[in-house]
UniProtKB/TrEMBL annotation:
Protein name, UniProt field: Chitooligosaccharide deacetylase
PROSITE patterns membership: NODB
Leader sequence residues: none
Family, as annotated: Belongs to the polysaccharide deacetylase family.
Native source organism of the sequence: Pseudoroseomonas ludipueritiae
């Protein structure tokens, strides 16, 4: 027989996932997770950061090392955080940057595997004990049939987010202020949701990190628990 749910999990279990992003609110978000005693699944990419560097550069080593020590799980979000645009031929994916001057490439199977493995290799170099899941997430959540097949051949399964799990931290804060996003998430979240957010989004004027702890506190008050994703992912 299944074990009864813990009283504090009466509403179910949520899977918080955090994509790398700009990193502006990273320390505040991490501190709030530690206070609220929750663990998330962190999808890593080497993106430009708010300091003028890159999010997997040595200056971030202590941050990622601390998250590994706290028990968060990790997955790949690609190394360069370019977008998968098309399948130009059998066993190929078109990989396109949205940043000026970076261009595009067509990757074959080994090239795509290397792109997915590189952020995990960087993590392993600084935190060998980190819990790494065989999961990846495409930038923007945009995949192609070939990308899914090539990643599966590398032993990785794609993990998106649930329809109600998009927390909106990428949206224009003038149209979607924090107060509205908080109310929406608290009202519509259901058991089993895969929640998506970032460690800060450059274009958002009102940082979502300002309401992050209010969101977690509110969901816990509703009776939700938080867990890292299982190795098989969540459909």
């Amino acid at each position: 027989m299944a074990a009864p749910a813990l009283p504090q999990c009466r509403a179910g279990t949520l899977y918080l996932t955090i994509d790398t992003g700009w990193g502006r609110e990273a320390e505040a978000i991490a501190a709030a997770m530690q206070r609220r005693e929750i663990r998330a699944t962190l999808f890593l990419a080497n993106e430009p950061d708010f300091r003028g560097g890159q999010t997997l550069a040595p200056g971030w080593a202590d941050f990622w090392r601390a998250r590994a020590a706290e028990g968060h799980a990790f997955g790949s979000h690609t190394w360069r955080h370019w977008y998968l645009a098309a399948d130009p031929g059998p066993g190929q994916v078109r990989y396109v940057s949205r940043r000026r001057g970076e261009g595009a490439e067509t990757l074959d199977g080994p090239g795509f595997c290397a792109e997915l493995q590189k952020p995990i290799e960087a993590l392993r170099a600084i935190a060998p004990e980190a819990k790494v899941l065989p999961l990846w997430r495409a930038p923007g959540g945009r995949t192609t049939p070939n990308a899914l097949k090539l990643a599966a051949a590398c032993g990785l399964r794609h993990q998106g987010w649930s329809a109600r799990g998009f927390l909106g931290d990428e949206l224009d804060s003038a149209k979607y202020p924090n107060k509205a996003l908080l109310a929406q998430a608290l009202s519509r979240t259901r058991d089993g949701e895969v929640l998506l957010m970032h460690w800060g989004v450059r274009s958002r004027r009102e940082p979502f990190g300002l309401i992050f702890e209010d969101l977690i506190e509110g969901l816990q008050a509703r009776g939700f628990c938080f867990a890292t994703l299982p190795a098989s992912g969540v459909a």
